[in-house]
Amino acid sequence: MMRKLLARMGWVALGSLSLTITASPTSASSLKGEVLKIDSYEGSDFADRAEIDIQGTVTDSSGEPLLGVSILVKGTTTGTITDMGGNFSLSDIPEDAVLKVSFIGFKSQEITVGGKSQLEIVLKEDTQGLEEVVVTGYTSQKRENLTGSVAIVDGDKLQDITSPNVGNMLQGKLAGVDVSASSGAPGALPKIRIRGKNSIRSSVNPIWVVDGVIWHGTPNINPADIQSISVLKDAASAALYGSRGANGVVVVTTKTAQGANTSTINVSAKTGVSLFNTGGFDISNSQEMYDLWGQFPNQNAIPDYYNEELLNTDTDWLDVGTQAGTVQDYNLSYTGTADKTRIFATGNYYNEEGSVKGYTYERMTGRVNFEYDISPKFTIKPKLAATYINTENRQHSIYDMYRNLPWDNPYGEDGKPVNPQEGDVTWYGRDNSNYLYDLQWNHSTGDTVNVMANVDFQYDITENLSFISTNNITYYEAETFSYTDPRSNSGLADNGRLYNGIGKRTTRFTNQMLSYNKAINDHTISALVAYEYNDYVYNSLSATGKGIVPGASIIGSTSEPTTIGGTKNDYAFQSYLFNANYGYKGKYNAQVSFRRDGASRFGANNKYGNFFAISGSWNISREEFFNSQAFDYLRLKASYGGVGNTPNSLYPQYELYSLNAQYNGDPAAVASTLGNDDLTWEKTYDTNIGVEFGLWNRLTGVLEVYNKSTSGLLHFVPLPDVSGYTGYFDNIGGVRNRGIEFSLGADVLSTASGFNWHLDFNIGKNDNEITELYGGKSQISGNTIIEEGENIDTWYMRKWAGVNPEDGTPQWEQINPSTGETSITGSYSAATLQKVGTSTPDFFGGLSSSMEYKGVYLNATFAYSEGAMVYQAARELFDSDGAYPTYNFMRLQEGWSRWSTDNPNATHPQPIYGGNNNAHKTSSRYLEDASYLRMRNVTLGYTIPGHITDAWKIGSLSAYFSADNLITITDYSGLDPEAAVNGDGFSPYPLPKRLTFGVNLSF
User: Fold this and answer.
1) What residue spans of 667-748 are helical by DSSP H?
2) What whole-number distance in Å separates Cα of residue 70 and Cα of residue 175?
3) What span, in angstroms and rounded, lies between the C-alpha atoms of 586 and 521?
4) 830: Cα within 13 Å, side-chain hemisphere
5) CA distances from 172 to 161, 167, 738, 752 (A)
6) So what's the pLDDT on residue 986?
7) What one-character DSSP code corresponds to residue 947?
8) Is 939 within 8 Å of 966 (Cβ atoms)?
9) In which band, very low, low, confident or very high, does the pLDDT at 13 lie, cut at 50, 70 and 90?
10) Which of 3-12, 183-192, 525-534 is predicted least confidently?
11) pTM attached to this predicted model
């Protein structure tokens, strides 16, 4: 017992120890808790209450006393800590006071004194949520019984980042889940990769499941409605999603009413500004442009207008096109329970103006989750959710903001945009284009409506057997409108244009499940069997007309139709599911899952596929022989299984014909792709081994290693033109992903004075390799190569060899195909195409910190990525050594320099008007390390003490300041390393810096 006490005492916060020693400095054996009266709170209503002296002891569930437990009188700062015998005492305490009892590694409690003078308090160990129930889609399990790889984040941890999209809020919070922003535009979806890429041509995106319903695409759901998110990463956890589980599954559980006879209204309001984030990409002002032109050795090639009069104009195009865009986020929710009824209702309004002028994103959402007990056995659970999104796009061009010269003034003397294509306007920039001229009229809008309705119910046939029915229909409608004014340059040829398009989508989902749960002595058994059906129908119609009067907004007002379009497509899945779990004494757990999927997307010979997983875990810390003073718990788990992936194409199995042709005035069908009756799923077989542990009641960790092998990749095989077909789909090729993930949580400090500090850290590493290709042949796609033995995202281009110090000309590597010998060449065409890196990060992850002291809290979230190589395509134009002289020039980064006779060992060739020997052409010169560490969010807030809110007759009140993307540490020279990793290395919309203020109130 003493060893256990000493182990815990060794981890008591220094603040707690100092308080105890001050109270009684004689010896450790005689330490007693001492009352700490920091503030008398003379204004409180405690003065009118009867006061008593109390004594008590605090022990763990085995009866051992706990040293250093914090005892705090709720609503005050009066408190104490326990001594080595677990004893404490408090004097002059209101007889109806509530004591807050907390200790690291144990569940906190609130104890009502109730006039008692002697208290015996037993704290239950909190093994960091091992008793927590985790929703894994079709089932719910205690965390300690999980045998697969599941990463979990609570809904309250999603409220830091300001975004309408929940995907952005996952960044850096889950090991092995690589989330990176694709754009900083309002409403933009991020890229999510779970344990790497499993396919070359098919989707690599995870599927989303909301309240048991598989979604088509990514759900647009209000983050404030979310109770928790579970990410299923391996086959054991995702096997019940069979043919769609290979890329991982994101399971979202929305909030429901909890408790008995509750009635709560919650209001939250957030508002702030978004600022354009230029990153490391700066362009020249008027003087810098002028000086650079002066360095060109071929001055005779420079236009005659080059003189000091150019310096009279210094337009900051970034200032013209960017702004402090506003963001507003308002939530109102009601939670109520009464007898047989439980209701959660919420509404949200979100409005954001982009940091680039001219783009507005507006969203309104509503949700009602209702439960009613018709009888003790029969409960109905209808749900209704709706989302409306409106966008208005008059967005300024990021490309033009960087391209345009500071010597050009976009406005005339009357303050209106000038048209450089008119003869009386002086314009120096390329293409005589002032994007502001057309932008004063041209615009587009979008309206989206999404309505989801569930009619769910549960009937408990027996105490252990239940029938659960999930039934959903989702209707989606999107309308787009585009206006091109006849006065604009882009509308001159057609005398103006209008485009109008509308698309409608209906998805249906039903799952009928029998669920069985039984505990027999030391044995626990749970099982389910289910039938599931899911289908989708989409149709669209679009039209374009030309010849309009300025301001027209109806397609029927065009004088002449130009094009009409439309499409209709559908798919369906039919599935049978089985899952069984067995546990013994809380020590051993085993699980088996099986799903048989049928899909409309596959050939007649392979309509159905089978997917499975087996897994187990061992709670070593439950064994009698386990008697570690350091480990709070220790678990091993292992799994193996197979899941699938479906193609992006909805009809790859059929022989297809195009019907938009004519022959002799009659409709004609033209052969397109050849069918394949044997086409089937991509199959991924996954092995996962993990260990979970808790140490010293302070640290929790998870370490996992995995190996995923994907075979039968869906690949389009081209055919010769003489065949009459473009090609056909077949199952060819393979990919392997191997990786390791580690997450660690630490209670750094928890003191009797009320200061708490918790840290979470995670890191993931994934190695990707192509194991098989059609005929073993390499495939070149743009600047990348797909080749056996290489990463899917391998760059393939000429390799930069620096600047020739003798004459300032560019150099590249040349490889002798016969000998493999490498030499240097000054001829771009003679340089050898070769593999020069990948855009896959070496590792990635996140760090979060949360601190709290007497209602003041400071939280921060960081995300990082290391080793991804990105092609900075913008430098081809803006760092071109004079090849594009009428584009603005990028300022040199620290450590960069241009060649001159005085600086022969430079990073950049000599600048020449018109370019220096193809130095700006595609090569590894512009391939950069996009590693970064980004502070995604920092929030400072204050929660009003409970005794004050009680006096005000409200539930709770807090206010906070928050900043997103305030700091980014990177060597990448572009606007945003995240967006660049996603493929836009040219002129991406960077994540803005965002400052917000918010208030949360409950009644």
Assistant:
1) none
2) 33
3) 11
4) 13
5) 12, 11, 20, 31
6) 66
7) H
8) no
9) very low
10) 3-12
11) 0.85
